[in-house]
Amino acid sequence: MSDYARITKDGLWGNNVVFAQMLALCPLMAVTGTATNGLGMGLASTAVLVASNILISGLRRFISAEVRIPVYIVFIATLVTLVDMSLNAWLHDLYKVLGLFIALIVVNCAILGRAESFASKNSVAPAAVDGLMMGLGFTLALVVLGGVREVLGSGTLFAQAHLLLGNAFAFLELTLIHDYKGFLLMILPPGGFLALGFLLAGKRVLDRRLAERATAAATPEPAAG
Amino acid sequence: MRPIFNWEKLDLLKGKLGYQGALVAVAGLVTSGALALASKVTGPEIEAAAARDLQQSLSQVLTSEHDNDLIKDSVRMTGPGGNEITVYKARHLGRVEAVVFQVTGTGYGGPIVCVMGVGRDGKVQGVRVIKHTETPGLGDKIELAKDGWIHAFEGRFLGDPPPEKFAVKKDGGVFDQFAGATITPRGVVKAVKGGLEFFGREKAALLDEADESATRKAGDGAARTEPGP
Fold first, then answer.
1. Does the global pTM surpass 0.90?
2. How does strand B124-131 pair with strand B111-119?
3. What is the pLDDT of residues B31-62, one digit of tens each?
4. What is the pLDDT of residue A186?
5. Does A86 sit within 8 Å of B10, measured CB to CB?
């Protein structure tokens, strides 16, 4: 498996920010009341993650190990503020939906985590790919959790997606259960923890099944790999 | 062959306290420079967008025809809650036809900030909740995006219903509460009632009718009007 394939697989599944590293749970719980909010937050985080990984890996040889954390934090906070300002100025409608969450990206430990554990040790291209894949993995987690909570909590999926993606994506807005009275708990933070718990358990089971199948397939021909 | 850049020397330097201090200083300097630049570039755009938002929310609670720029035609006054608020005046041919101002109620999860428009006749033209922290799915029906409840105020004034009936049904009034949430609508109803009482009290100043009374009040410190044209 090539390096990039491994980075991709790690980011999306094996070392997923939420499902494996258990990072960034604060923004996760805050925004996943609907799948649309999750998607928006995920895309904004991905943009910051890619930019911060590129910046930090480009400058990694100049940064002393002793002061690396403050330097990373300053860079990440600046990038987030730049994203915040530009969205507010040029994509104001999107900002009205996401504005509250953007500041939360600063405290997203996944971004500092990738700067520390990947970007500071690798060259620019792999760092950019790592940022992109970790970001998409995070987006995946946000959308899945947001979708589950939204369907159970209010019976819709991707409500108000046109505010985020433009009117062309209005077809995404589904009402799955008509005349649904709603299951309030799922919209509230405890519902987020409950749903995340079940999703994590599900991933564990799936991973174990896959591993069992892999060993079962590998046993007759141990020399295969 | 001599390398273009002496990395080993840099690695040695990186251990020095001076280099580290300088590194943090340079990082801080460069990023603040970037932010200052970005703020300069985006500032006017952000202000324009905020003004557009304000204009939009003001026009939502106004039904009176007006021909002036509301945002420029505003005064600061002591509002219903005793705090300073901005009152926007909608004029047609120079006469104040309606005023728009903010009122704040107390909900279940904290303050509920509403903007309301009141016509010259004292009737509510519209109310919109602009900020709240009520329970999603229960209390958030005060948002127009979730429910039409907020329309119940339109055309109401102190008299229809009378002040003692200007409350939610549970308190003997005429306005609906929500199943499972009384505190939220009660907060909004009280805020609107407070707004109407404020309008009744300050009517002269709000409608520019009695300049002398406005001047007197400004002297008392109860109300301040900006020097008009």
1. no
2. antiparallel
3. 999 999 999 999 999 888 888 888 888 888 88
4. 83
5. no
- Sheet containing B124-131: order of strands: B74-78, B84-92, B95-106, B111-119, B124-131
AA letter at B130: I
B134-189 pLDDT, tens digit each = 877 678 788 887 788 999 999 998 888 888 888 998 888 889 888 778 899 999 99
Could you say which of A64, A81, A86 has the minimum Cβ distance to residue B19?
A64
Residues of A whose CB is below 8 A from B41: 89
3-state helix, strand, coil in chain B (%, to 5): 45, 20, 35
Q: Which two tokens stand for residue B81?
A: 């809650």
Instruction: Give the rounded distance of the alpha carbon of A5 from its chain centre.
Output: 19
Average pLDDT in the A99-107 region?
Answer: 78
Give yes or no for a contact between B192 and B81, defined as CB atoms under 8 angstroms apart.
Answer: no
Place of tokens 């340079």: B26
Both tokens assigned to B88: 């926007």
Q: Is A187 on the interface with B (CB under 8 A)?
A: yes
**Cβ-Cβ contacts under 8 Å, A188 against chain B:** 135-136
Three-point CA angle A29, A151, A137, nearest 5°: 50
Q: Give the pLDDT of residue B213.
A: 44
- Specify whether the CB–CB gap between B218 and B129 falls below 8 A: no
| Spatial CB neighbours of A187, under 8 Å, sequence gap ≥ 6 | A33, A149, A153, A154, B136, B137
What ipTM was estimated for this complex? 0.74
The model's pLDDT over A173-218, given as tens digits with 9 standing for 90+, comes to 778 777 777 777 888 888 899 999 999 999 999 999 989 998 888 7
